[in-house]
Specification:
Mean pLDDT: 95
EC number: 3.1.4.58
Distance between the termini: 25 Å
Number of helices: 4
CATH architecture: Alpha-Beta Complex
InterPro entries: Cyclic_Pdiesterase, RNA_CPDase
Shape: globular
Keywords: Hydrolase, Ligase
Catalytic activity: a 3'-end 2',3'-cyclophospho-ribonucleotide-RNA + H2O = a 3'-end 2'-phospho-ribonucleotide-RNA + H(+)
Number of strands: 9
Strand order of the largest sheet: 2-6-5-4-7
Function: Hydrolyzes RNA 2',3'-cyclic phosphodiester to an RNA 2'-phosphomonoester.
Low-confidence stretches: none
Length: 184
């Protein structure tokens, strides 16, 4: 199973995510994510054999406990790109309030999952919600202008859990299913 750990945005913020995506709709070369599946990825695990799921669940349970983070409020807004405005691969909306707590959760999960043999991240963690992936540079100028000139606010929500999710890649994009929930 292709798995990752995430904090899902509530359905109530899907319209806000879609509204930000609409500002980028004229940019060619973008492949938009489904606003109904919006989430903040804390750790991408990749392929996990079903017989290792219990081991991963134990590690994440321990990580969430060790992070010492209780339920908290998070705000979503502000545009950015990875890796840079000169070479755009991902367009995202960031996390303001709650970024420190998400980072604590990420760091604890990173420690536990790398101890199990999962690959460590090779970049700094930036809490974000992916809006689109850029397949080619045709729309780069428009994306750059929107990112530099516009502020965006999606909304706020209460973070109460981390989810282990599996991702099945289909013709209409990925389908996500929650495997396990870890309460804060």
């Amino acid at each position: 199973m292709r798995c990752f750990l995430a904090v899902d945005l509530p359905d109530s913020l899907a319209a806000g995510v879609a509204a930000v995506q609409d500002r980028l709709s004229d940019a060619d070369g973008l492949r938009f994510t489904d606003p109904e599946r919006a989430h903040v990825t804390l750790k991408f695990l990749g392929e996990v054999s079903p017989d290792r799921i219990a081991e991963v669940e134990d590690a994440v349970e321990s990580a969430v406990e060790d992070a010492g983070v209780g339920p908290f409020d998070a705000s979503v807004g502000g545009l950015g790109v990875f890796p840079s405005l000169d070479y755009i691969r991902v367009v995202w909306v960031g996390v303001g309030d709650g970024a420190a707590e998400l980072t604590q959760l990420h760091e604890a999960i990173e420690r536990e999952t790398t101890a199990l043999g999962f690959d460590p991240e090779n970049h700094d963690f930036t809490p974000h919600v992916t809006l689109a992936r850029m397949d080619d540079a045709r729309g780069k100028v428009l994306v750059r202008r929107v990112v530099e000139d516009e502020s965006s606010t999606v909304g706020s929500f209460r973070v109460r859990e981390v989810r282990l999710k599996k991702s099945d890649l289909g013709p209409d994009g990925p389908e996500y299913e929650t495997v396990t929930r870890f309460s804060l």
